[in-house]
Structures are given as C-alpha cells and as structure tokens.
Amino acid sequence: MSSIQIIRDFYSPQEGFSRTLRICTPEGYDPSAGHRYPVLYMHDGQNVFAHHESAIYDTWCANHVLDSLVHQRHSEPWIIVAVDSTPHRLSEYSPWDEPRSRISARGEPYVRFFVDTLKPFVDHHWPTRQSPEWTGVMGSSMGGLISLYLGWRYPELFGRVGGMSPSVMWSYGRLFEHWTSHTRRWTRIYLDAGTDENIDPVGWPMFYGQATRDFYFHLKNLGYADHELALVLEPHGHHHELDWQRRLPMALRWLLS
After folding, report:
1. Pfam families from the xrefs (predicted)?
2. pTM > 0.90
C-alpha cells in the first residue's frame, strides 16, 4: 500500500505563513532504485487522503483510489502532493476579486508559492519526472478553479489538470475571458459536476453543472480535442466531498492515463 508523510510548518515565503503538506508515495516506492515518478498536486490537502490525521469528516480517499488503479493496471504509480487549505481558502484560491461576495483575491501569492517554492522543493527531494505531461494539478470547487488557472497560466509546468465542480463562474467568469486560446502544449483536462449542482454559499447562486458544461464547450471552441478534454455531468450530483470521492476513480483513471 501507499504511505503518507506529513510535513507541518512548511513555510510559504510568498504568502508569509506556513502550510501543511501531505505527500503520498506509492507502494514499492524506492528513491534509490533509479525510477522517476510523475506527480499530482492537489488542493485542500486535509480532505484528500484516507488517513487518521485527515479531516474529521469525509475525504476523497485518493490514496486508496490510486492504489486500486495501479493494482488494476489502469495507472502507473504516482506521487500525490496535497497542500492543506486555511480558513481563508476562498481568497487564497481566488485569482481575481469577487465583488458580489466582497472577497479579495489572494490567489497570486498562492500560485507563486506553488511555482517558485513547492514544486522546486518536491522535484529536489523526490525522484520526479518534471515535464508537464507527467505533472498534474487537481482540486474541487475553488480548488478546481485555481487548478485550471495554474494549467492555463503555466502549461509548461502542469500538463494534466483536474477540476471537480470547478468554480469557473467566479468573478463573473473571468477564466473564460482569460483563457482565449489553446496553450499549444501537451494537455489533458478533466472537468465534472452534478448536472443540476448549485449552491449559494457567499450571497449569490452558483450553478456548477451549467457553468462547467459552458467552460467545456468554451475550451472545445478553442481547439481542444477529445483526447485532451473530458466532461462528466453526474445526474443528482451535489457539491460535497462524498460526490467528489465517488467520481475520483473515474477522474484519475482518465486524467492519469
């Protein structure tokens, strides 16, 4: 089985405070064997793994999912690096201000932390494959938005992008306005949501099924092909960890293949 290492108080100089990292290495991992591993980065790290030091409530169980995919030969072994969020996650995962909710963007320092501190640290201390086709980033809700933002802004670093119920409607759909062409890089993008999924957590309704579908067709119109882009709309899907947990095996099987 895979194993999980927790690094507490990992300092983010771009943000001015420390975060918790959770690194999952696959079964049979041996840094001295000369094998190099692809890496998937995930947000809301406390919700990612089935582990006694994860969130109290439901998690994605990503370690069990990947173990199963590897055993079934649907995926090769990956390292998963999960970064905990903070109580200010809405701001920290926001590339742009959201005036309807009076939320100021703090996404830029978080993105710089990912690019300038976290990824170099991981590539230095673990035997990784550093090319974009072997580096992924994934999250849900606002974590899905910031994952897509990282994939759009740094396609030379993150070639595989997973957005589960991504908040692409944030800031009046600014991601649509910025993502105006194919990156012309190796790309694999997974999108999903509940068909009628919607929530109103910050003072205005967020219709995830409709917005995710619209963003999928937006990318298709920019020239992304079927082998680069996947959309799953789940009937009766909700905005909840259990729903993302349920869809994760399908998501990782496609995204990491």
Report:
1. Esterase (PF00756)
2. yes
- pLDDT, tens digit (0-9, with 9 covering 90-100), for 156-212: 999 999 999 999 999 999 999 999 999 999 999 999 999 999 999 888 899 999 999
112 touches 12 (CB < 8 A): no
**C-alpha distances out from residue 231 to 14, 140, 148, Å:** 34, 14, 14
Q: Domain total for the chain?
A: 1
CATH number for the domain spanning 135: value is 3.40.50.1820
- Return d(Cα 225, Cα 219) in angstroms, integer: 9
Q: CB atoms < 10 A from the CB of 55, how many? A: 16
pLDDT at 241: 95
DSSP state of 134: G
Domain that holds residue 199: 3-255
Tokens standing for residue 99? 């005036």
- Among 152, 156, 149, 164, CA closest to 252: 164
Closest listed residue to residue 40, CA positions, set 113, 112, 139: 139
